[in-house]
Amino acid sequence: MSDQGTDEGYARGLKNRQISMMAIGGAIGTGLFLGAGAAIETSGPALIASYAVAGVVIFLIMRALGELLMYRPVSRSFVDYAEEFVGRFAGFATGWVYWLMWVVTAMAEITAAGIYVQYWFPKVPQWVTAAVVLGLLFLANLISVKVFGEFEFWFSMIKVVTIVGAIVLGLAVIVFGIGPAGEHASFAHLVSDGGFLPHGAGSALLALQSVMFAYLGVELIGLTAGEAENPRVVLPKAINSVMVRIGVFYVGALVVLLSLVPWTEFHEGESPFVRAFDAVGIHGAAGIIQFVVLTAALSSCNSGIYSTGRMLRTLAIHRSAPSAFTRLSKRQVPAVSITASAVVMAAGILINAFVPEKAFAYITSVATVGVLWTWGIIVVCQLRYRRRSDRGELPASEFRMPGAPWTGYLALAFLALVVVLLGFSEDTRVALYVTPIVAAVIAVGYLLSNRSARVKQPV
């Protein structure tokens, strides 16, 4: 198929190296660098299996997205596919849920950036750092997509180099017994202290809820289709790399960390990388990881500004948002949409300052709802597309999802399981409380949007 007309006026300014690095580093966030400590404490080495199983499902979801992208590569992919294969309400809901997901994620990340910077500059007010971060990344996205891509390239590079360095150093310590940790480091730690499943299979199952959200952002590559220099070449390669990067950066990193130090020595609130680096004898490990975590937060915020700007413009094109948001600047970026999204994100600074921590948790749980819905709708769209292409109603994609439709059903069943698991933890149960509220707001918005569209139609 031709790519003509699929970029919606955007400049194809994202280089292959930028998209490839975004694909490698896109799913590496604070969940691995910080959150894994709590998961290791409750699941032990079984967390490795949780990441591996969830990684397989993520790969299936990405292959489903890849099949759709090769059928029709558009920057507004999620909304277009949902509207075409499920219905207008699905497109409306998917666009707004995804926009909300990234807005609240960015709110959380700019707040986190303020906290991380206080490690070095404790006297700098948290809101000042948050405002500076949002302002700089907003300007970067406003200049051109090339600047966004370059920022994301280097943010991802820092994360990737850190993890690869940790793995190589850790393997050297384990295999050759070098350094202070060399005497005790061993792969035997993976099955000692209660075995691979010290708290039973149930703990590994419950860990899936947090593990899945560590992969949030992996689908972002779908929004780059209309701005990639050569989407039909670079996107399949990037998607196929998902299994490798999950295997190396998540499973591989955890295997090494848990072999350097027994799992019983990892605790909630402490980065497992800091604990392992301390054991190896690297002075200043906390500062190194603090810098990498800050980079991960900046990367997430950068992605949030990029994705919300594109998604808000997509909604406007579909007449699901004010028409002013369809405008592109002279540099071919959706400046009005980016600005509006950034203004809403700035509310996160105020929320953090004036609203109790519990209320902020309710708001950020929208991200939980958003990512499950988005991943699910991608698979549903692929299943319906494949059915129609097999009947000859649509051209077949050159990048087909393996094992379809059964792999699609498997992915949907897994996502449904994660929804059920959310109810087992007090920290994640809030997402289930927020879901009906979000659904009601979107339903009302859809009705108002339809009514407005009918009023504007010429008689």
TrEMBL record:
The chain crosses the membrane at residues 21-40, 46-66, 96-121, 127-148, 160-181, 201-221, 242-261, 281-301, 333-354, 360-385, 406-424, 430-448. Residues 19-454 form the Amino acid permease/ SLC12A domain. Belongs to the amino acid-polyamine-organocation (APC) superfamily. Amino acid transporter (AAT) (TC 2.A.3.1) family. It is found in: Cell membrane. Keywords: Amino-acid transport, Cell membrane, Membrane, Transmembrane, Transmembrane helix, Transport. It comes from Amycolatopsis deserti. This is Alanine glycine permease. Its main location: membrane. It is a multi-pass membrane protein. It comes from the Bacteria. The keyword Membrane applies. PROSITE patterns: AMINO_ACID_PERMEASE_1 (PS00218). Pfam families: AA_permease (PF00324).
